[in-house]
Amino acid sequence: MIDNQQAxxxxxxxxxxxxxTGQQRLxxxxxxxxxxxxxxxxxxxxxxxxxxxxxxxxxxxxxxLSNLQRQILFDLSDVExxxxxxxxxxxxxxxxxxxIEFEPLVTDINPTNIERMISxxxxxxxxxxxxxxxxxxxxxxxxxxxxxxxxxxxxxxxxSMTIRPGxxxxxxxxxxxxxxxGDAPTCDTAGVLGAAVAxxxxxxxxxxxxxxxGDHDSLSQHLTMIDLWEMSFRQVSLGERDPSCPACGNxxxxxxxxxxxxxxxxxxxxxxxxxxxxxxxxxxxxxLANRLRDAGEVSYNAYxxxxxxNGYQMTVFPDGRAxxxxxxxxxxxxSLYARYVGM
Length: 343
Fold this sequence. Notes:
globular; about 20% strand; 14 strands; eight-stranded mixed sheet; alpha/beta; Rossmann fold; TATA-Binding Protein; six-stranded antiparallel sheet; 2 domains
């Protein structure tokens, strides 16, 4: 450890549960954070300051004004600049700890790319906002034997658990079926308390530090549930793995084997629809900007193009992915995309 690292991590190194050996393990560790929103920004900030050596930040979205209440790595300038969350977070975190290697990926996470995102890291943090992605992560993590830390927050309550393939129950052991659309509350319908996000992210971060420093005996073997408003804290033992579990028992990776990503996705809390094109093209944003100038106000940078279209805002990425803001109707979003970009 070089001198400035000795000073930076001094208060952490003297912790008996970490020490010099644990700190060096953190510096040598590699993690991926899937979703750089509420939970993801809190965890990324904590683990950057803790000294995790490599952090891959994956998110498809852009910062919005409504994010600032709970997503701690963004400010108003990020909303105004239109820089994607993954890139903005990497920029902010690099200023906090320039010794860390960050890899921001501005992309949708789907069955065609998730294995590349997690197969070369020691641990994955769940920062997602939907169950479909969590079940996909569960499949990929089991296939590649990569541990991950689940987390979720809605309203004033949240939950977390640590999943170690081959050792602990997996997500489908605990929750065999994903909630049907409309059955589970969302951030749109129930809201989110920022302090509840911080608490669940603290649990996730602590579990990550335990695992990365090698203190696996201290990892939680429970599903931890909190309600911060009621000040309640409950743990349910995970028990043993289910030998008949489709994922970890039979290695039937139903979510991972869906090779074609869904064409449209409703984005939580943003009055927006995401459009995916498969196979992904390679767009010239400059050429597209020139083509769209007569249609509306256009701006673009290295990451994205944004155009205002009669009450809608369309953001297009180089891989053909687009976010149509101003509608929650997939058909309307596809129609706008076909009209202005082509499909």
